[in-house]
Structure formats: C-alpha cells, structure tokens
Amino acid sequence: IILLLVPSEETDENDLILEVTAGVGGGLRHASASIGGSEAYRHMKFEGGVHRVQRVPKTEKQGRVHTSTMTVAILPQPTEINLVINPKDLRIDTKRASGAGGQHVNTTDSAVRIVHLPTGVVSECQQERSQLKNKELAMTKLRAKLYSMHLEEEINKRQNARKIQIGSKGRSEKIRTYNFPQNRVTDHRINKTLHDLETFMQGDYLLDELVQSLKEYADYESLVEIISQKV
After folding, report:
1. DSSP reduced 3-state for 51
2. pTM score of the predicted model
3. What domains are defined for the chain?
4. According to a count of CB atoms within 10 Å of the terminal CB, is the N or C end of the chain lower?
5. Which portions of this protein are annotated as coiled-coil regions (predicted)?
6. Model confidence over 180-193: pLDDT tens digits?
7. Are strands 90-95 and 66-76 parallel, antiparallel or unpaired?
C-alpha cells in the first residue's frame, strides 16, 4: 500500500557519479566513478554521507582501535532535459597533470578544470591522457554537482524535508560505522546493526537487507510527509 501511495523520485532511474573523499591519513585522497544501470541511483542513493571504520591495524602493537572516516557523495547524473548549462557560464582551464600517470601525462596540458561562474562550482579531471576525454569527464561531474544542488534546493522548499535524504545535504553526517573488532556494521539513520562484516563488504544479502530497510524507512517518511501536507 505504501508503494502505491508514495511516488518514486524523479532521479531513481538516473545514472550517477560516486565521489569518495578520505579523512585523516591514507595515501588516496579523492576518487570518483560513474555508475550506470537499471535504477542505479535508487539502489545507491543511501550511501551518501560519512562512513566510519573502526579497526585494529596490523602495525598496532597495543591492540588499540583506530578510527578513520571516508565521505561519500552520490550525485544523480542529469539528462539533457533535466539540466541545461549555458557555455558562456563556464570557464575552462587546462594545465599539466600532476602525480602518477606516465611521462606523456606530465608533459602535456591534459588536465582540465571547469568553473561554473554563476555558482562557483568547480570540477577537475586529469585521469586520462587525452585533454578532450578529461574535459568530457569533468563536464559530466560538473553537471552532476549542479543537478544535485538543484535537487537539494527543491527538497529544502518542502516544509518537512526527509531526515534520510541523501546527496550533498547529508555529506557531513555520520551515516554508518564498520566495527571490525566487533564484526558489525551499524547504520545510524535507522539504528540498525548487522553482524558478519566480511559478508556485508562483499555486497551479499546483508547489504541488500540494509538497503531494503533504508528504502522502507524513506518510503515511510515520505508517507508521513504526504499525510502532514493533507492535514
């Protein structure tokens, strides 16, 4: 009944950009990936936020638990109809790529940086040797960021924005803890704890169970919002 009463989000069918930013420590600071498929955003949208890991490193002699964090952003990828960007609103800069990538990458202006002047949103890419390819990827990420901002503005206009809503709105919120000494994962938004971390991290049935619980909670919040607007 709830599924019939609660409309699906317009972005549920969209592809997405996944961005990961590391907290303190570690060598890899930032990474991004494009994810597509049937209802990609619908299945991934609840991963946005701060993920906390608690573990005892192999180099730890005293057995102390170390905590690290990773911030995940899930940005729905808009279609041409969803978002139109005026080329005059963009400043595109090129520069030499930095870091690993081979001699060719580091001696040509292959890195691309795009600034959306009205909002100040910036997107960069240097992962490809081709400047044209990097420009295409940077533009894809920029469109996703701008679209996410638009969606967040629409959500904030509602009187009762859902607490579980993800995207840039919840990037600073701790959503989940992976505790390796206790072999558990806890999602703080719905206060649900599952055991057997290895199975969960492999994306097996435990991950599906948690995602389904999050979907049900989000649908419940949507229903409450609809009812409150009718009253």
Report:
1. strand
2. 0.70
3. 2-79+159-230 (3.30.70.1660), 87-155 (3.30.160.20)
4. C
5. none
6. 999 999 999 999 99
7. unpaired
Q: Which residues of the chain have pLDDT under 70?
A: 1-7, 24-27, 80-82, 99-108, 154-172, 229-231
**111-116: strand order across its sheet:** 90-95, 111-116, 121-125
Q: Name which of 80, 225, 88 is nearest 143 in CA terms.
A: 80
Contact 75, 148 (CB under 8 A): yes
CB 108 within 8 A of CB 95: no
Q: In whole angstroms, how far apart are CA 183 and each of 68, 102, 194, 226?
A: 16, 40, 9, 38
Q: Name the maximum alpha-carbon separation found in the chain.
A: 65
**Three-state SS sequence of 138-190:** HHHHHHHHHHHHHHHHHHHCCCCCCCCCCCHHHCCCEEEEEECCCCEEEECCC
Q: Residue with structure tokens 């730890």?
A: 60
**Cβ–Cβ under 8 Å, residues 94 and 32:** no
Alpha carbon 52 to chain centroid, angstroms: 15
The count of other CB atoms within 10 Å of the CB of residue 114 is 20
pLDDT confidence of residue 30: 81
Would you give the distance in Å from CA 87 to the centre of its chain?
26
Instruction: Read off the tokens for 170.
Output: 């919840």
